[in-house]
Backbone:
């Protein structure tokens, strides 16, 4: 089992290193597989005072390539809101800690926003479209891998 950024997992899958991958994907991007989860994305900060409205938005993001990073920058660019990378972290825990420390704002799935962080409403920052999780299975996957993939899809469907 490997945990990595989506684009790295997709590359490994194409290279034949994985039988199954569970990846974030943009709904409009054609990636094989079945959608198993839809994630509403939100802007989060330590509190409502995280943005002064004068300075560029301080973003807390994962390194390239990251779907949430891309979503944040695209939404701000479309709204013509200036931004800067204030902190980069490869982990969810690091991102949440940086937000909690007041270093800036981040994009997180609503389900991953701890109660200690504040969901910023769309009067402050532009709305974010949902993203989704897809399960992709290699044609040569073993029967065991296929059963495991079905178990993942069933479990996520029950949780939705």
Residues:
């Amino acid at each position: 089992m490997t945990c990595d950024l989506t684009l790295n997992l997709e590359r490994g899958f194409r290279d034949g290193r994985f039988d199954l991958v569970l990846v974030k994907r943009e709904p409009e991007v054609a990636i094989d597989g079945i959608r198993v989860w839809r994630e509403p994305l939100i802007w989060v900060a330590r509190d409502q005072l995280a943005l002064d409205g004068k300075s560029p938005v301080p973003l807390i993001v994962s390194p390239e390539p990251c779907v949430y990073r891309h979503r944040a920058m695209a939404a701000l660019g479309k709204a013509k809101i200036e931004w800067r990378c204030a902190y980069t972290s490869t982990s969810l825990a690091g991102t949440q800690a940086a937000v909690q420390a007041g270093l800036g704002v981040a994009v997180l799935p609503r389900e991953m926003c701890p109660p200690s962080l504040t969901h910023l409403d769309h009067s402050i920052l532009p709305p974010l479209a949902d993203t989704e999780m897809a399960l992709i299975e290699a044609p040569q996957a073993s029967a065991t891998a296929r059963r495991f993939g079905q178990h993942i899809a069933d479990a996520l469907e029950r949780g939705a």
